[in-house]
Amino acid sequence: MKSVFQVSALCSLILVSTSSWAMTDSELAQSMNQDIAKYMSVIKAPKLLFHWVDASDVNPKGEYNKRYEATAAHYEQYVVKQGRRIYNNRRSGDSDIEGPGLYMASDPLVSRSYGGERSYGLIVGVLRVGAKVLTGSGMNLSIASDLKLEIQKRGCNAYSYETILDTFDKTCAKIKKLLVDKDASFANGRIYSWGSNHVSGCSSRSIDRDVRFPSGMSSYRDPETFVVYNKELFSQVYGFTHKSLGDGDSLSQKILSYLKGLELSSGKEVLPDLQMDNSDISAMSAAKVKSFSQDYILGCVE
User: What is the spatial distance between Cα 179 and Cα 281, in angstroms, rounded to a whole number?
Assistant: First the structure.
């Protein structure tokens, strides 16, 4: 009999709690998606993003030293798998400064140290024109007051959408799941300011040449680094390792030739000796490196 009373009390508590909600979960999710839309930036040009890791991270298990074409399907699947980290509940010690997802740089040098000197894995994505990314720098991603109250009724004291997406709190993680939904269709990723290296061919970088930012963004910060949530951020994904020869399609061949020419023109180590010494991989001239940078590096100013 005691257990019956306990169950009855619990049901009453749930009914009292949910009766104070002005919206259903579905309505709250839809309203948050409509509200957060004003913070989205839109991609205007098909520029490249770069993600350096170890070859064992991007190739199938046990095939660290196997050569694949740059267009092999498992490279895109790597993007899908890593992007789905947006759904993860964060744990103490997680150091992702802009929350979970796949981190990618808009120049080939700034994150090169994450790949090995003699061996490496490299994911290159071609940004899709029209893709939308949440603006993570230069904006206060505040939540509309009525939605903030509704979220608080559910036990989550979030003051911005960043605090929801980057939360370590289990209660706020439930709100995050409503916002992100099953396919992360609310955004293809996030763009924020971290840093970039000087790239041959670019006298400076002006990201708003290639990304349309929201009108309310502060002008003193120029986001250039991405957190990828889904493969729809890209029109094409390529993969390279220390075994790559550039086979795949014409752009993948140009990318590898560009990286080789970039090392020669910049003096910075990009590819391992194995590829630098391989005559099957042509190196772009300094003039072609400059031209390629202007065509494919985000915000490149001649």
Answer: 46
